[in-house]
Amino acid sequence: MEYREMAPEEFNDIASRILYEDNHILIFNKAVGEIVQGDKTGDEALSETLKAFIAQRDSKPGKVFMGVPHRLDRPVSGISMFAKTSKALERLNEMFRTGAVHKTYWALCCNPAPKADASAEDGFTMLENWLKRNEKQNKSYIVGKDTRDAKLAKLRYRQIGQSQRYHLIEVELLTGRHHQIRCQLAGLGCVIKGDLKYGAPRSNRNGGICLMARSIRFDHPVRHEEIFVEAPVPSDWPEVEITTCADAK
Asked: How far apart are CA 25 and CA 218, in angstroms?
């Protein structure tokens, strides 16, 4: 099996964005515009880019395995996990399915979050909606519980910072529905900066939206030790002062 050879600039960029790697798992800092797995556009997916990178870095003959246990939308940045062995992929798939992988997202929104639940010690508020996906529009809508094909979407949110124009909302994702965070926050009136599809007044210059997979916590599927990985905030986000969460970085 032959993979393309990367130019030094691309090779170094990929290497710099690996947040965690061992024999079973690779966690990567995905940029806006990159796709995790191949789609109808025909653009090279990160799964294929990483295969080429590992083949070149490790002088690896033969086929490189790179499984995809979860995905990020193209306009979203941040943590994306890949499995380097079939055993890890099988176990990670099950962990994502059962909610054993804990994911935190940061969203820079045009409006503040509604007042937090006063009874929650950690400042998070639970948000539940029923969502239905419109395949033709590639968009999800909040609908009634009894709507055909509606799926329950659950997350917890809290506002952790703000700038003069924007508000930083932290989200713990509890289910994995299509465009869930984008749709549910928009339903609160907290449209994500740059997200034209869900009501933002203007796009971002890079074509993405200000939503990132900030951190991930899970028990290693093979070694069974806790792994915590955090991605850096994109350099092109407006500077935000963290105001309500002392341990946010």
From this structure: 12
